[in-house]
Input
Amino acid sequence: MYLCPELYENYMKSDALVIIPTYNEKENIEAIIRATFSQEKVFHVLVVDDNSPDGTAAIVENLQEEFPNQLFIEKRAGKNGLGTAYIHGFKWAIAKQYDYIIEMDADFSHNPNDLIRLYDECVNEGADVAIGSRYSVGVNVVNWPMSRVLLSYFASKYVRLITRMPIHDTTAGFVCYKRKVLETIKLDKVKFVGYAFQIEMKYKAWKHGFNVKEVSVIFTDRVLGKSKLSKGIIKEAVFGVIKMRIKGLPK
Output
């Protein structure tokens, strides 16, 4: 079916933006973008690239010719952390007036087929924040070594114990936010940039009284590319959670 440019632009409009932060994801980026655009619902995609030396940004820019008005890229000067990449994307999404903003990794650990489920949880089931949860129903992790499964699982248990959040997967990075949540949270006041960023965002949303719900998903470890998880990121989470719990939110 041929659509003239004006009709095509209207046809491809969307109320939902998927933010994909990247650093050296040339093996995955085209496939994850195409998988997102193959969904029954129209999603837009914003790639926030931290100056990947492997040419990730160039791949995205080439794809923009194929997906005009649907695929966007923001290129940053350096590698400044996952949290700042998402905040950059959140601000961009708010300025563009998207109603639903979704975090998703580039490496297929988050299944693009679950995007509609997270979106539906916010649109039709009353959630303000919908979390793609590995631990709400058992432990749904594939291809991780047992040591990492235990680290992730008990990290979420630890965070839940310290913060009292009624959330099983507190460190999940597959999340759909209604725009009003991101407009309420003072994004410039978010402290953490690594693993703890995901915890802080959920904590602030919960403390502000938003309805945070979990959707059970299967998390599959990346096949291509290298993991960005480091000891420093884990340390930030462990000690940062205690500081966050003590300080809480300003009155």
Remarks:
- The chain has a mean pLDDT of 87.
- The radius of gyration is 18 Å.
- The first helix runs from residue 5 to 11.
